[in-house]
Specification:
The complex is a heterodimer. Chain A is mainly α. Chain A has one domain. Chain A is about 75% helix and about 0% strand. The longest helix of chain A is centred in the last third of the chain and has 28 residues. Chain B is mainly alpha-helical. Chain B has a two-stranded antiparallel ribbon. In chain B, strands 2-3 form a two-stranded antiparallel ribbon. The chains are: A mainly alpha, B mainly alpha. The interface between A and B is large, with 42 and 43 residues.
């Protein structure tokens, strides 16, 4: 039987997750009760994006390898789940060239999203083993090359993806509550991963891969399983994303989207779950604000030409400034925890903090 | 005569790709920075040609020289403003910075000029054809080869016989020791960026010359070419970059000729699959440089 003290300590250890989970849920309640339709949409999209950033954190944040391929896996999840969930009659119309065997497939939406995640993880499992041996420049370029290979296949294989054209006809499924529950589950799972034995070994390999190897960490294997898990979350997020957006083209899974996900993770701090959440919040607020500003400038007629690209421009500037002044991100690689309840916990809290130091 | 045509096309494409790759490796060699903003120097030079060509009445050859200078200057400025402050930070920080710089420059052009393509005025000589030993080929191709040979010779001489060149080669091998010998780090890095931008500007003339137009995303393809070529040739030596450029030009033309029509759209996927294979099986590339993992601190 757990004593009260142990229960409090256990909760405190996971306080990051509970804190964010409660904030997310309260936010959903407030938004769906009081806010206009636009804010509900933004909030839903934010929750889906948060899932994607958390999935990116799993591998990139804990292994220190810049995972360019990630958004490609999001795409695989989105396409697979959509192909499975769209009704055969709609599919025959939306993707005229699709293989007949694929047209006949039909699953309810939630199983389709899960199947999409499994397929994504399987593809990651098949292709990624040799890639995990590479670090630094070689690692980055291979993962980048992999993203381009995926993009070419997505735009060219029109029997499956409808080629460069839009894939439409997907039923909306991701309401604000579905999105927030998915985000909270992802939050709990990714936090568990970070603190798990696998996560710890991965972080050890990030900080010093030779030292980690010397104490018996199989760096390639640890990276491999984490990469596959990260791809699973990507596929899952892609599925929820697709059933929110309801129509998309391969363009959505390319460099510029990857840049936004990367920015969210790096601005907040890639090393921790708190960083991922913080970054997602900041970049979402900033993007929405800049979009308003853009619209306002264009409507007011203050300038004679259409203003585009202000959003990406300012996000890029912010990213450069953060990298110059605080390359660890705003949160700085450690988890935000609730302040200590009493003096007695100070000692253990101190030990915890030291463990978090890079 | 298909053979002769293929040869000239391959040589011209190869020399262009060699220049593209060389520009990337100059910075990578010293700073160990995979510079994603490299394609944007090419883009900026293209826009410089567009602006100067349409707004001023300067002759083509002057605008081209100015465009190359603008590219070199842009490269130097990005080094000064963005890369120098993050130089001592992690590998990823520098890489992401270069990517952010790339997105920033692209969108600056989108905001200030237009997201759509703009026509660049070019000298009529660019479209003229020339007959060499019975092979009819655009003069542009021959000019590319001549420029590449001239630049490669000049750069080889500079790197071999000038103090700065020797210092740069030393810095690429072992930066720490080079600094201990009294070589100022900032100077070497700045010069590397300027040469990189200079090459990008030169490439831009021929790259833009092929389509006679420039758009904000024009730098992406050359960037990918530079990646492929440097990976094939070897990221740790300048010779490797040149070799990689020519091998890639050859591979590209071979794939274009041999792939069946239905597969031609997958050519890029094949190229990048080759890149991945190279990195996994022979990460040092065709030309083995003096490998070092050290970065500038």
């Amino acid at each position: 039987m757990m004593t009260l003290q142990e229960a409090v300590a256990a909760l405190r250890k996971r306080s990051t997750v509970w804190m964010f989970a409660i904030l997310l849920l309260v936010g959903t309640l407030l938004v769906s009760a009081f806010a206009p339709r636009v804010f509900i949409d933004i909030y839903t999209y934010f929750c889906v994006t948060l899932m994607l950033v958390l999935g990116l954190q799993v591998f990139m944040g804990n292994s220190g390898i810049l995972n360019w391929t990630y958004v490609g896996f999001v795409g695989i999840g989105a396409y697979t789940s959509s192909i499975l969930s769209v009704l055969p009659s709609v599919k025959a119309m939306a993707v005229p060239n699709m293989y007949p065997a694929l047209v006949e497939l039909s699953l309810p939406i939630l199983p389709a999203i899960l199947a999409g995640a499994v397929v994504t993880a399987l593809i990651a499992a098949i292709i990624s083993w040799p890639l995990m041996r590479l670090s630094d420049a070689a690692g980055v370029i291979t993962l980048f090359a992999m993203l381009i290979v995926m993009q070419v296949i997505m735009t060219q294989w029109d029997n499956v993806t409808n080629g460069p054209r839009t894939f439409f006809g997907i039923q909306p499924f991701t309401t604000v509550w579905v999105a927030v529950i998915a985000a909270v589950v992802t939050l709990i799972v990714t936090d568990y991963f970070r603190e798990s034995s696998l996560g710890l070994r991965l972080r050890a390999s990030r900080d010093d891969r030779h030292a980690a190897a010397s104490i018996g960490v199989n760096v390639v294997a640890v990276r491999y399983f984490s990469f596959v898990f990260s791809a699973f979350v990507a596929g899952l997020g892609g599925g929820f994303w697709a059933h929110y957006i309801t129509s998309f083209s391969p363009k959505a899974f390319y460099v510029i989207e990857m840049f936004l996900l990367l920015t969210m993770l790096i601005i907040g701090g890639a090393g921790s779950i708190s960083g991922a959440v913080t970054g997602a919040v900041i970049v979402t607020i900033m993007r929405q604000t800049m979009r308003q500003v853009e619209g306002w400038i264009n409507n007011s007629g203050a300038v004679s030409f259409e203003v585009y690209g202000l959003t990406e421009f300012s996000v890029a500037i912010m990213l450069i400034l953060i990298l110059i002044w605080r390359p660890q991100g705003i949160v700085g690689g450690r988890e935000l925890r609730l302040p200590s309840l009493g003096k007695r916990h100070q000692a253990s809290a101190g030990a915890d903090e030291t463990a978090e130091e890079r | 005569m298909i053979g002769g045509e293929f040869l000239i096309n391959t040589l011209s494409l190869g020399s262009l790709y060699a220049l593209i790759a060389l520009g990337l490796v100059f910075v990578y060699g010293i700073l160990k920075l995979v510079n994603f903003a490299y394609g944007e120097y090419i883009m900026i030079a293209g826009y410089a040609m567009f602006m100067l060509g349409t707004l001023t009445g300067l002759p083509f050859y002057v605008t081209m020289v100015l465009a190359v200078i603008v590219a070199a200057l842009t490269s130097y400025l990005t080094e000064l403003v963005a890369f120098r402050p993050v130089r001592t930070k992690s590998f990823n920080a520098m890489l992401v910075t270069s990517f952010a710089v790339s997105v920033m420059l692209q969108n600056a052009v989108v905001i200030l000029i237009s997201p759509r393509a703009r026509a660049v005025p070019l000298p009529p000589a660019f479209n003229a054809s020339i007959n060499i030993l019975g092979v009819v080929t655009p003069l542009r191709n021959v000019l590319t080869i001549i420029t590449a040979v001239t630049l490669l010779t000049a750069l080889t001489l500079i790197m071999k016989y000038t103090v700065l060149g020797i210092a740069m080669r030393a810095a690429a091998d072992n930066f720490g020791t080079t600094r201990l010998m009294g070589v100022p780090a900032n100077l070497v890095i700045s010069v590397a960026f300027i040469i990189s931008g200079f090459l990008a500007g030169t490439v831009s003339i021929f790259w833009v010359g092929r389509s006679a137009s420039v758009e904000p995303l024009i730098g992406f393809t050359p960037l990918l070419i530079a990646f492929i070529a440097t990976v094939i040739g070897g990221m740790h030596s300048l010779v490797g970059a040149v070799v990689g450029g020519f091998v890639y030009g050859l591979l590209f033309n071979l794939l274009s000729v041999t792939l069946p029509a239905s597969m031609i759209t997958y050519r890029d996927a094949f190229m990048f699959a080759i890149v991945i294979l190279f990195l996994v099986l022979r990460p040092e590339g065709l030309v083995r440089g003096s490998y070092t993992e050290e970065r500038v601190g």
